[in-house]
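pls design
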């Protein structure tokens, strides 16, 4: 059994290698450690190895962990799971980022419920890039309207896009999806000053995602082991 420290180190070298192979500058890809279903002690182990960005999927579990680890003030907490509107308040009160914005109602509630004592909430719009049937994420055509709305909200800072491409049948299809996503990201980035984050790539597809311009990979099982 490898330790969390060892697996974190491997994940970091994999990111470095993929970044270099893509001729991208060192450190242009951040690692978000996804800790859903994993105990707080795993988060502490990764923290002790220098990891600072952590992602959670489930609101109640995530909020409990943020509270239990409140003394680790430099952890940056990312909500990456689907959000229901009755759960937005605790998320606005505890998280630094929400990556799963997929409708105006959720954005508006987060903006209204963000405590004035906290910095603006960093948000990503989740894009449904290749699977029209899935419930999560918006279609590319809906992007301009949602971007405009979020730009008008003082307590939200629009940082970019997030996507979870479905497993592609072959490399060609995977590359096509990732290229389309990167094109969209770069297109909107030209006119938006704080739009700097493309969150795509997980344990299984991080190398391809980095080759296609991902700036943040979300890695769970490759660091913390399979979830039961
Ligand atoms: C669980 C999850 C991840 C991490 O997936 P792994 O395959 O464990 O690396 C990344 N992003 C989202 C949105 C997730 O729900």
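designed seq:
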């Amino acid at each position: 059994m490898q330790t969390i420290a060892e697996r974190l180190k491997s994940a970091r070298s994999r990111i470095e290698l993929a970044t270099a192979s893509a001729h991208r500058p060192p450190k242009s890809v951040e690692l978000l450690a996804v800790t859903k279903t994993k105990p707080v002690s795993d988060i502490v182990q990764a923290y002790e190895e220098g990891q600072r960005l952590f992602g959670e999927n489930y609101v109640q579990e995530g909020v409990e962990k943020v509270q239990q680890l409140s003394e680790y003030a430099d952890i940056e907490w990312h909500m990456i799971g689907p959000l229901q509107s009755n759960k937005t308040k605790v998320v606005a009160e505890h998280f630094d980022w929400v990556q799963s914005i997929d409708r105006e109602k959720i954005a508006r509630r987060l903006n209204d419920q963000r405590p004035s004592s906290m910095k603006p909430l960093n948000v990503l719009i989740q894009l449904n890039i290749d699977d029209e049937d899935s419930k999560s994420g918006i279609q590319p055509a809906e992007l301009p309207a949602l971007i405009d709305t979020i730009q008008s909200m003082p307590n939200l800072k629009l940082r970019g896009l997030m996507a979870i491409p479905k497993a592609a049948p072959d490399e060609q299809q995977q590359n096509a999806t990732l290229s389309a996503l990167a094109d969209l990201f770069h297109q909107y980035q030209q006119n938006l000053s704080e739009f700097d984050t493309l969150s795509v790539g997980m344990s299984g597809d991080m190398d391809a995602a980095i080759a296609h311009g991902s700036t943040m990979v979300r890695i769970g099982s490759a660091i913390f082991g399979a979830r039961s």
